[in-house]
Design a protein that fits this description.
This protein is 65% helix and 0% strand. The protein is mostly helical and 411 residues long. The chain is globular, with a radius of gyration of 21 Å.
């Protein structure tokens, strides 16, 4: 049990000192029309894009692995290179359609989809850890205040910071699109906010955010959300299917090679090699941040390729549809599961990275079939799954309650 908390602490220290989740300026074509992003269903009973669900599953699995800290071995710094940017990138896939909604309705819907689950998960975590740690009033109050502010590296349940941060990214992007209309302009704004957070703020928002609900982190990660919207039509087109890429482009080979190098040596090693060859490049600051973002995008693309390869694996897709709930229940699930196993005299000993990675998957499966199943069945709104406006049509179809919902950004 002590090992679990020690490794969680180590992973949060990496968030502060070595978090390589960065954002990037990328040169791509701007000829994509805005309407090409309209590929996502609005209701869960419509056909889902299989590889996107698997892509999200790989992302949440990486989150769970990374939060076990050094017990994950090389996978620990490896997943920290890309897992947070990957979720902002995925959240941007279907974002263009939101500009059509009125401000009041949009903010109301996003509040129900993201901030209500944040509040629910925060209350659950507060209750569980207050009982588990035998806290008094002072400790419980301090923990509650950490949830109120929601600041990364300070909030009690580490993964929960992402929900208010994503909420702010989505709200910011909505008004940017309202003003500038085209995604290319929102990308330009996001590039500006990315550079501004790194050059004007006293703290690095990816390592040590300090603003309410992670607004500084939202301004930093906004660029990934914009890039996800821009790149999604390219990634989803038939021309980018795994088979055609293997036959037509060396990009996949290079991506797999770079992924292996990053895993085995770490991205910092590569950057230091570049600096040695080109001494004019500063060893820190904006060039370092841009380099880390390039590494993150390479690994994100690797996950896209892997998701397409395993798109028909229903098990992965089912888990990928619950990423918001997985994010909200991570700390509680890991804590309760390890304690229940120890109560049964089954010690959780993460003796090597393979066992850690496997146990992370077990945590996801257990959460899916216990806490998340309970909420999906009885309180779907508590995990961000809203009933669609056309409730009568859905009811006439005889759909089950958990299928009459509209998925949130990371579901």
């Amino acid at each position: 049990m002590g090992l679990y908390y020690a490794n969680v602490h180590a992973s949060r220290q990496l968030d502060r000192a070595n978090a390589p989740e960065r954002a990037q300026v990328s040169s791509i074509s701007w000829t994509l029309p805005m309407h090409t992003n309209e590929l996502q269903m609005t209701n869960a009973d419509k056909t889902r894009i299989e590889w996107v669900d698997v892509f999200r599953f790989f992302g949440i699995w990486a989150i769970y692995v990374g939060h076990f800290g050094t017990a994950a071995g090389k996978a620990f710094p490896f997943v920290f290179t890309y897992h947070v940017p990957m979720f902002f990138f995925a959240a941007g896939f279907f974002s263009s359609r939101y500009s059509r909604e009125t401000p009041f309705n949009f903010i109301k819907k996003k509040t129900l989809q993201l901030m209500v689950p944040y509040a629910v998960f925060s209350i659950i975590a507060l209750i569980v850890f207050t009982i588990q740690n035998n806290w008094g009033v002072a400790e419980a109050r301090d923990a509650a205040m950490s949830f109120v502010f929601g600041i990364r590296n300070q909030v009690l349940a580490g993964s929960l910071w992402f929900l208010p941060c994503l909420y702010l990214v989505i709200i910011i992007d909505y008004f940017v699109l309202k003003v500038f209309k085209l995604p290319v302009f929102s990308l330009a704004v996001s590039i500006g906010t990315f550079i501004a957070t790194l050059t004007l703020l006293p703290n690095n928002p990816a390592q040590d955010p300090s603003w309410f609900l992670n607004l500084d982190s939202a301004l930093f990660y906004y660029i990934y959300y914009s890039l996800g919207r821009i790149f999604f039509p390219l990634l989803h087109s038939e021309r980018t299917s795994l088979k055609s890429r293997l036959l037509e482009s060396p990009l996949i080979v290079a991506t797999f090679a770079m992924t292996a190098i990053i895993y085995l040596t770490g991205s910092d090693w590569l950057f230091h090699k570049i600096v040695l060859q080109f001494p004019a490049i500063p060893a820190f600051g904006l060039p370092y941040e841009v380099f880390n973002v390039l590494m993150a995008l390479i690994l994100i693309y690797f996950n896209v390729l892997a998701a397409k390869l395993f798109a028909r694996v229903l098990f992965f897709g089912e888990l990928g549809r619950e990423t918001l709930a997985f994010c909200g229940t991570e700390d509680v699930t890991k804590s309760i599961l390890t304690q229940l196993l120890e109560m049964l005299r089954l010690k959780v000993d993460l003796i090597n990275p393979f066992i850690t990675i496997a146990f992370s998957l077990i945590c996801l499966v257990v959460s899916k079939h216990t806490l998340i199943k309970f909420f999906n069945t009885h309180f779907p709104q508590a995990v961000g799954k809203l009933r669609p406006a056309d409730e009568k049509t859905q009811a006439a179809g005889g759909q089950q309650r958990q299928n009459r919902t509209e998925p949130a950004e990371i579901n």
